[in-house]
Amino acid sequence: MHPLLQHDRQNLTAILNQTQQLAAQYFARQDTLAPGRFVADIALEHMPDKGMGAQAALDYFGKHFADKMANSAGPRYFGFVTGGSTPASVAADWLVSAYDQNACGSNDSIAPQIERQTIHFFKEMFGLDDAYFGSFVTGATISNFTSLAQARQWVGEQHGLDFSNDGMAGSAPLVVLSATPHSSVPKALSMLGVGRKAIVKVDTLPEREAIDVAALEQKLAAQQGPCIVVASAGTVNTVDFDDLVAIGKLKTKFTFWLHVDAAFGGFAACSEKYAALMNGINAADSITIDAHKWLNVPYDAAMQFTRHKSVQLKVFQNSAAYLGDPAQSPDYFHYTPENSRRFRALPSWFTLMAYGKEGYRELVERNCDAAHHFGELLKNSEDFTLLAPVRMNVVCFTLKQEGVTADAIQQFLAAVRDDGRVFFTPTVLRGVPGIRAAISNWLTERADLELALEVLKSVADKLKKPESV
Ligand SMILES: *Cc1c(COP(=O)(O)O)cnc(C)c1O
Questions:
Q1: Bridging pattern class, strands 286-290 and 199-201
Q2: Domains in the chain, ordered, with CATH?
Q3: Segment 191-243, tens digit of pLDDT
Q4: What's the pLDDT score for residue 107?
Q5: Are 147 and 263 in contact (CB under 8 A)?
Q6: What whole-number distance in Å separates Cα of residue 395 and Cα of residue 237?
Q7: CA separation (Å) from 90 to 77, 126, 206, 244, 353?
Q8: How far apart are CA 391 and CA 333, in angstroms?
Q9: How many angstroms separate the Cα of 464 from the Cα of each of 236, 406, 457?
Q10: Best mutation site among 72, 78, 80, 81 for ligand 1 pocket (most ligand atoms within 8 Å of CB)
Q11: Most buried among 27, 76, 161, 453, using CB within 10 Å?
């Protein structure tokens, strides 16, 4: 064994303690560190011939990199839809690395059983029928991909075709009906060879991002054959939900695969105040829900649920003598895009065990309350205006300026980031450039949004005044 490996093996406890100290220093400063920061390209160094050992590498990281990380797990990072990491999930994630299980197989550890158990918890949490089969993937994008891969196979089967074995050459183009699909849906369709242009946009309800179900019915009636419907359970701009009950009813008249992207909106099910938004979810053939957003576990983790396990197997089976017979095997590598898999169910299991239904109800309701509070503050402010009513945990707003441009928003948000207290990302809603505040972190309180408004106001004031010389 190389002497440095030998040394580090003997000093593993010291290395882990040093790591724990670095992490603890970060956690202790989560309330004050800048949530986002601009970092220019660094000068690239040569790969070392002779290593420095883990402790020196930790020192190097601490000295040169630690303070340039985003404090995206902190309470005032409102960009995208970003969760932090609960204490239980961080602990679990460290153990995932320590045990380094390859959670693909079923014959050497309890890991796949813990994954089954975790999926079972989630089915109860989200009100899903027992009939769903679920597995962990890396994120909602790959969950959408895994779902739409099954949808593609299923549409082929309705025509007597087997795309997984024969490919799609010569077959009629697939149609995907959707009103406000997340950008990962066209991306997934591109990866699947279905093509981004397969999406046929369905009208939304007036002033909403939710689908107009009557318009969907018309589009379905105009289809020649089976198609795919992608419904949103929580859009990223306004957390709008398609009417899943009404869409589900259309299944009695038309043949389609229903995929529901509930990446973060699925957590509506945690609270009686919002749970009705998820009514009808059991009509879905496949469902996407993220774990690294509102569940607040470390990246990267999401769940994929399907009612068609056998279709999933047809697409993802991984046949090789050394991997066993897919038909006989419950192994996840026959169901998910990955072959080798990180044991990403464990942080989810830990956090659900640690905080339970009650903990997540409190978290979801507190985040939504903070969003509504922020919405009220913005409504009463001089410089800002809401672009949509606050539905759950995202506030979509813009500068109160005639003809505000995307450039103006970019500039404004760069100044907000450089102030160092809050972080937002831009968007466009119905053609109007705006700002999103997505509140999905377990640490966030009302006071964080009050501070956010203060920062926004001070930056708006600064930009209004001509530069002082
Ligand atoms: C975030 C999000 C995605 C993509 O999720 P990743 O985990 O970043 O891949 C897809 N759909 C919706 C509705 C989302 O909010």
A1: unpaired
A2: 101-342 (3.40.640.10), 358-468 (3.90.1150.10)
A3: 999 999 999 999 999 999 999 999 999 999 999 999 999 999 999 999 999 99
A4: 82
A5: no
A6: 8
A7: 18, 23, 43, 34, 14
A8: 38
A9: 30, 17, 11
A10: 81
A11: 76
pLDDT of residue 448: 98
Nearest to 343 by CA among 136, 140, 147: 136
For residues 410 and 396, the answer to whether their CB atoms sit within 8 Å is no
Ligand 1 centroid to residue 87 C-alpha, Å: 23
Contact in structure between 399 and 412 (CB atoms under 8 Å):
yes
How far, in Å, from the CA of 2 to the mean position of ligand 1? 43
What is the DSSP code string of 246-294? HHHHGGGTS-EEEEEE-TTGGGGGGSTTTGGGGTTGGG-SEEEEESSST
The confidence band for 190, taking pLDDT boundaries of 50, 70 and 90, is very high
Which residues have any ligand 1 atom within 6 Å of their CB? 81, 139-141, 182, 184, 234, 236, 261, 263-264, 290, 302
The residue whose two tokens read 């409102």 is: 78
Residue identified by tokens 């956090």 is 351
Contacts (Cβ under 8 Å, ≥6 apart) of 107: none
Cα torsion at 97, 103, 107, 113 (round to 10°)? 100
